[in-house]
Amino acid sequence: MKRKLIDLIEPFKIKVIEPVRLVSEERRKQAIKEAGYNTFLLLSEDVFIDLLTDSGTSAMSDNQWAGMMLGDEAYAGSKNFYHLEKAIQDVLGYKYVTPTHQGRGAEHLMSQALISEGQIVPRNMYFTTSKLHVNIAGGVMPDVIIDEAHDPENEFEFKGNVDLLKLQKVIDENGPEKIAYVNVEMNVNMAGGQPVSMANLRAVKKLCDQYKIKVIFDATRSSENAYFIKTREKEYADVPIIDILNEMMSYSDGCIYSSKKDCLVNIGGFLATHDKEIFEKTRSMVVVYEGLHTYGGMAGRDMEAVARGLRESTQVSYLKYRTNQVKLLGDLLIEGGVPIVRPPGGHAIFLNALKFLPHLTREQWPAQTLSAAIYEASGVRSMERGAISKGRDKDGNNIFPNLELVRLTIPRRVYTNTHIEYAAECIIDLYKRRHEIPGLKMVFEPEYLRFFQATFEQLPL
């Protein structure tokens, strides 16, 4: 596959570097064993290329670093909060803003403010922390994503779309009063970073308005989603990203947002809304759980970096480079015969562990096994997104979803295309000897979000 260099060239210069080293194969084998074959438990110093997550791992710009020197660290009324508020109003179009220390804080506030015991929060596809916050508040989160999302090889361009018939069924079976809100995630993580179309967002809002049901977005990767709308929905080809974002958010009552992704920062988050009632509820709660409503757990300097990063993330040159670097990794793996989720998504490439390791049973945790094997073979850290992440049902049984994936998440503005090529080369080589990879058994399981801390032992091949 021929690639144009102009589509892959970085739209920036590198001013500061952080040295990395590839530790020996012997050390990698020892390190992953010490970590219980869980890549979350590896030491960062033992990792060569870190594709664990795009959350808080971006490289900030000179403009953002300059802004951090202007941090107003007043406890109340920091000027940086008002810069952040204005950026959110301009870029996303929401009137009211409640800052939080990161997206998880916003999830907590929104869940506690809007969910009553026994209520339902339909979502295109669950995310781990989002679902847990709904459960803790007494709610349940059924998936209402289109069927194409469950097929890794389906090339539909908007696999994050809500299935309106599935959503209608949930409303009909439970009654609108049982629906706390409908939750729509941008660039759906667990489906492979797949975007939602503008047409679908518009249709979801129209349906929910009929029943007076609120729509809340997980807008964490909304800039990347907006770029896919610009490049895949013809009527938006000439529309600026900010205008696309404003229209997207107009089809919601509010959003939760982890600034650690699209805002290109290492920490921060917020909850934003058009609805004054939601704002008043969450603003009163933020002082209990996060901090005063003009900092919400962030330092002034961090709020300034978020404000500037949110604006930077709307630059077409950056978004083109960002999505094309992800696509580069996907294309290289496809050329090497490696099974991935198609089409390549917005923030990561997802390996189909069931096809990569067909000799393993589901109880031998193929995705967890593959993630550990990739590290041992290359020093590249990835993460499991399958049955370990899905967890157990109410009866305590493991849930085995259709998608058993390994996520290779690309930090923003951090790695060069040579790093990407190295990662692809190592994974392709591992695929050629995939039948030599033994499975795992779980030996420790924490109560919540087990993928973070569970440990494993290697089984005999």
Automatic annotation (TrEMBL):
Gene Ontology molecular function, alphabetical: tyrosine phenol-lyase activity
UniProt lineage: Archaea, Promethearchaeati, Promethearchaeota, Promethearchaeia, Promethearchaeales
Cofactors, names only: pyridoxal 5'-phosphate
Family: Belongs to the beta-eliminating lyase family.
Name of this chain's protein: Tryptophanase
Record key words, sorted: Lyase, Pyridoxal phosphate
Gene Ontology BP term (one): aromatic amino acid metabolic process
InterPro entries found in the cross-reference section: ArAA_b-elim_lyase/Thr_aldolase, Beta-eliminating_lyase, PyrdxlP-dep_Trfase, PyrdxlP-dep_Trfase_major, PyrdxlP-dep_Trfase_small
